[in-house]
Request: fold
Amino acid sequence: MNSDDPNHRLEIYFHLVDVLALITGWSLTLITGVLLWFAPTDKCVSIVVWLFSLLQHEWGKLHLLMGVITLCITVVHLIIYQRILGKLNNRQNLWE
Reply:
């Protein structure tokens, strides 16, 4: 084993956490957006217990929070991978 092995494992772990955070964030934003679309607007639907008993306004707040968190994760991701993206931009053929 060489001395780079722990650093390589840490880098793989970081990439995994980064990708999982992006997938989770965008998935939760999408799910709350879809639920926001179908959420009831007032309490007159008390006969039907809707998902977590949240109205459209509350789902809107949750969707906004998820969106802001996801955008922050995406910005951090793009800043971290700026060097890699710059290398891709300078290539003549992106498949090289």
User: Anything to note?
Assistant: Residues 39 and 56 are 5 Å apart (CA to CA). The mean pLDDT is 80. The radius of gyration is 20 Å.
